[in-house]
Amino acid sequence: MPGLRGITPACAGTHFLNWTAKDQTDAVGRGECHVAVDGFRIAAMAVVDELADPEFWHEEDEPRDALYVHRVIVDRGYAGSGLGEALVDFASKLAADRGKSWLRLDAWRTNLALHGYYRRQGFDHVRTVSLPHRGSGVLFQRRAGEASRGTVRFERMERMGPEGEELRQGGSLDGEGR
């Protein structure tokens, strides 16, 4: 099973719809891009940050009391391996470690299968926001520190800093959030 690591160049070489090279560089520079690697192959990635989309999350939602997970992507060769779940569990643990109450995300309104996937990962539907200029808008959250099903275990988690230095992220994470 690949180890979960955040690596500086991981997001920079990856293309995402409506995500500019500057967005990628900024996320990497802030240490928000986390990847699961298998040797030298990027198996999965996610961006985890404090950037609440103001069109979706309002002051009454207490947006500063959450971390937000974006762009969870798993290489099709690793589909069904639990890597997406493990990245989301990692983000949940990171939110708890930072004293946040929630892990939140938004999903495309038309992707019903993805909505079901997040519900199975312990997320609750908060509301759906329909804006004509946005495809996304189905909002989910779960308590920070909660893990999904407890089926994936990583020996270590770390991330690389902007200069390539290895920064210890802390211990192991199993499905119980440890």
Structural class determined from secondary elements: alpha+beta
Proportion of residues in helical segments: 10-25%
Mean pLDDT: 76
Oligomer category: single chain
Strand content: 25-35%
What can you tell me about this protein's structure?
21% of the residues lie in helices and 31% in strands. It has 178 residues and is an alpha+beta fold. The protein has a 9-stranded mixed beta sheet with strand order 6-7-5-4-3-2-1-8-9. The longest helix has 15 residues, at 83-97. The protein is globular and about 45 Å long. The protein starts with a strand and ends in a 10-residue tail after the last strand. 36% of the residues are buried. Mean pLDDT is 76; it is low at 1-17 and 151-178.
Which features would summarize this protein structure in a list?
178 residues; alpha+beta; 9-stranded mixed β-sheet; 9 strands; 21% helix; globular; disordered C terminus
Layout of helices and strands, plus pairs?
Layout: E1 3-6, H1 8-12, H2 21-29, E2 33-38, E3 41-49, E4 66-74, H3 83-97, E5 102-108, H4 112-120, E6 124-128, E7 136-143, E8 157-160, E9 166-168
Parallel strand pairs: 1-8, 4-5
Antiparallel strand pairs: 1-2, 2-3, 3-4, 5-7, 6-7, 8-9
Short structural description:
The protein is α+β, with helices and mostly antiparallel strands and 178 residues long. It contains four helices and nine strands.
